[in-house]
Structures are given as C-alpha cells and as structure tokens.
Amino acid sequence: PAGGASLRLCSTRVALEGINKPVIDRIIRVDHAGEYGANRIYAGQMAVLGRSSVGPIIQQMWNQEKDHLKKFNELMVAYRVRPTVLLPFWNVAGFVLGAGSALLGKKGAMACTVAVEESISDHYNSQIRTLMEEDPEKYKELLQIIKQFRDEEREHHDIGLEHNAEAAPAYSVLKTAIQLGCKVAIFLSERI
Predict the structure, then answer these.
(1) 5/52 Cα distance (integer angstroms)
(2) Based on the structure, what is the number of domains in the chain?
(3) Which range of residues forms the domain containing residue 155?
C-alpha cells in the first residue's frame, strides 16, 4: 500500500478501546468452547440416533448450535480472542459424551441435553450479570447475542424434558455427573 500503511479489514473488527479485555476474552473464549463442545455432543448423538424417531429433533437443536458456533467464531476474530488450547480435548470428549448418552437410548440423549443446556443457560445468565455490571450500553451487542443463545439453550433444555429425559436410567446421577463435567470444562476453558 502507498505510504507504508497496512491494509486491514475493519468490518470484522470491533473498537477495543474502553472494553474490559480480560473479561471479554474470558467470555468469548469459554462460550466458543461451549458451543464447540455442544456441536460435538449433538454430532455424537446423531451418530447413534440420527435415524431414530428423535433424530430430527436432535438435528434441529444441532442446527441452532452450529449457528451459535459460527457467531462465536466471528466474535473471536472481531475481538481478537484466542481459542482455548483444550479444543482438541473438547472435540473428543463432546463426541464421546453425545454418543455415550445416546447409547443409553433416546431418554439418555435427552438427559444429556437437559444437563448440558441447564448448565449453559445458567452460565450465560452469570455472564449477562457480569456484562450488566460492567456497562450494559458498551456491551449491548454481546449482551443481545448471549441472551438470545441462552433462550435457545433453555428451549433445548425444555425439549429434553418433553422427550422424557427424566425417565433415563439413573437420571439424577447422570445429570449431576454431566453438570460437574460442564463446570470443570467452563472453569478450564475460561483460563487455558
């Protein structure tokens, strides 16, 4: 370029001045990891139950998760956030969790959905509180995205309950174990 100026596509970047970069980095990194993991869970469920009567329902939820992941991929570029180094682990762990829960049958897959989506919507609520305390106007776009995704995760949670998640074998043990795993994944993905 003339005059030694560098070319940069501004449309994919946001103004980073005045934002709490460590907070935003942590939020976007963990949400990207969560949506990545959710995609892998649904991929695992579809590998086992894709041709069953619950296949179209799982596919519908997976399609929304794909949209969520796409948005967080865009936000990572816009806010210049690096992904968690744990993505290769979440790739495998998510698929194994999805396929493993689906091997328990439709109710097992739905129990997994209820556990994960409840954890994620609670986590999104915590992030909403954090951003509201920081500056709701400054983070208006990010708040809108997180609120929309939280509402869609709640829908997935409710779909799981409507499809007999609570009748899965050892439901309360399964739900507790999955939610503990989600808490660990959130903790690690925010930081690493």
Answers:
(1) 57
(2) 1
(3) 20-190
> How many other β-carbons are positioned within 10 Å of the β-carbon of residue 84?
21
Say if 11 falls within a structural domain: no
pTM attached to this predicted model: 0.90
**Distance from C-alpha of 109 to C-alpha of 15, rounded to nearest angstrom:** 41
> What's the DSSP call for residue 52?
S
DSSP summary character for residue 168: S
Calculate helix-pair angle for 106-134, 171-191, nearest 10 degrees. 40
> Six-digit token pair at 105?
């049958």
- Per-residue tokens: 13: 């970047």
**C-alpha distance from residue 51 to each of 47, 55, 107, 168 (Å):** 9, 6, 15, 20
Span 154-184, pLDDT tens digits = 999 999 999 999 999 999 999 999 999 999 9
Residue 9 lies in a domain: no
CA atoms of 36 and 165, how far apart (whole Å): 23
